[in-house]
Amino acid sequence: MRQAAEAISQGGLVAFPTETVYGLGGDAFNPDALAKIFEAKGRPRFDPLIVHIADLETLEEVADLSMLDTAARNPLFLLTENLWPGPLTLVLPKQKAIPDLATSGMSTVALRLPAHETARRLISLSTGAVAAPSANPFGYLSPTRAEHVAEMLGEKVDLILDGGASQVGVESTVLDLCNGQPVILRPGGTPKEAIEALIGPVAIGPAVNADDLAENSGLPSPGLIKSHYAPRSPLWAHDGESISALSPSREDRAAFLFFDGASRNEWLSVQSLEKGFTVAVTIAVLSETGDTLEAAARLFQTLHELDRLSPKCIHAQLAPEHGLGMAINDRLRRAASAT
Ligand code: TXA
Ligand code: MG
Prior knowledge:
4-stranded parallel beta sheet; alpha/beta; 12 helices
């Protein structure tokens, strides 16, 4: 831990666990470290980073709350009081100390106070603010284990802190508090329902769940480009009913990713009725009982496993649109739109 904090303080890069996914961290106040993050990920510089802090006291060092609309102050208080630390990123007016590179030149900064103990210790033992995107090459599946980072970015980081599997498994929900009504720019580990229970109705950003996301311009959150989160194998996203009618042919070498056990069973029964089950397919289920929390926690891990088998394609079943289902579907649709 001391070595890792030292590396960050010296402008190096450390991959570290968070409760959502692993992050690729560098000193948020150091433009050279920020440039290294973009470089290591192959990430375009128009896609701003999330700045992670370890305690609420640091908030005003990175966010300029005097620039925040007065109507947003109470929601900010309620959200930080109840949902931080946790998988929620808040977009707020930025403080001058945060270099433009971190925010792609915008006057706002995305901030998160992670729940993972290792992440918080790393941040507070180093510079107090660590910029970290997910620790994967740009456009590829996010890492939920240290092994994923080692495989994908091993040589490009000074150190990887291994904290086991990420508990939440999908990235944080990104909520913009800078434009009148709060807007979810990216569905994630904090369900919309939990946010609305505290601050009332929130809007959903236009890019979310849109079929034809603009390639990389005109989006409220520049990172919301469609090729995100894709496995190497082409992926198709199906709703619950259309996947059960889908039969693979003998040469398909397809992988099927079901949301729940019941859907898999139904699909299996249709397959064997129609032609006897002789085709080689790989089958995975995100949650036997259909629990969106469990499904989210297993999403990237399962996609990494399927992708390693290099199937000709992955047929994935969408989740119901509640709880973490929204975040799961967002990731699957983006992966599908890269196909
Ligand atoms: O769970 C997470 O959020 C993980 C872990 C490591 O904390 N991090 C993560 O970072 O997912 P990244 O860089 O992969 O995603 C950051 C998202 C992008 O969609 C980006 O466009 C958006 O946050 N974002 C960053 N700064 C923003 C800003 N100022 N305004 C609007 N969106 C912003
Ligand atoms: Mg990412």
